[in-house]
Amino acid sequence: GEEHYNCISALHKSMRGSDENASLYWLARMLEGGEDPLYVARRLVRFASEDIGLADPSALTQAVAAYQGCHFIGMPECEVILAQCVVYFARAPKSIEVYRAYSNVKECLRMHTGPLPPVPLHLRNAPTRLMKNLGYGKGYKYNPMYKEPVEQDYLPEELKGMNFFKERKT
């Protein structure tokens, strides 16, 4: 029932709040109450990117490994795998930078009226002679061939200067 959602919310918020003690409690309460360990593991995969993100990029690897470990061995043996992951996440630094930036991109796409801007010609592949003659790929600078980053636009002209990592005004 509702307690299923209440407990996962409490686990999520305890990890977000860096409370390893409460995080373990909510995990155990769920597992000992019969919760599917793969459900918990899936939520940890989401948490790794949503709440920890680039503050600790290894968090996603930890979460996927925990999911795979639970899948391989099941309960009750996988409980310690989930416990390790939960404590790791509670102790990890947190960042929602990517989560917010992606939300800003989605908002930009939803608020756009009319056809979406085309992919700039220099970013398009030119697998055929016709495409090459139409200018596909013309002027593209292949970064690995340069010692320094190159000046090149990657967004459509209509979005030039847009920075999704900055807070958007609604």
Automatic annotation (TrEMBL):
InterPro entries: AAA_ATPase_RarA/MGS1/WRNIP1, DNA_pol3_clamp-load_cplx_C, MgsA_C. GO terms for cellular component: nucleus. This is WRIP1 ATPase. The gene is Wrnip1. One of its GO terms (molecular function) is enzyme activator activity. The keyword Flavoprotein does not apply. The keyword Glycoprotein does not apply. Pfam families: MgsA_C. Residues 17-168 form the MgsA AAA+ ATPase C-terminal domain. It comes from the Eukaryota.
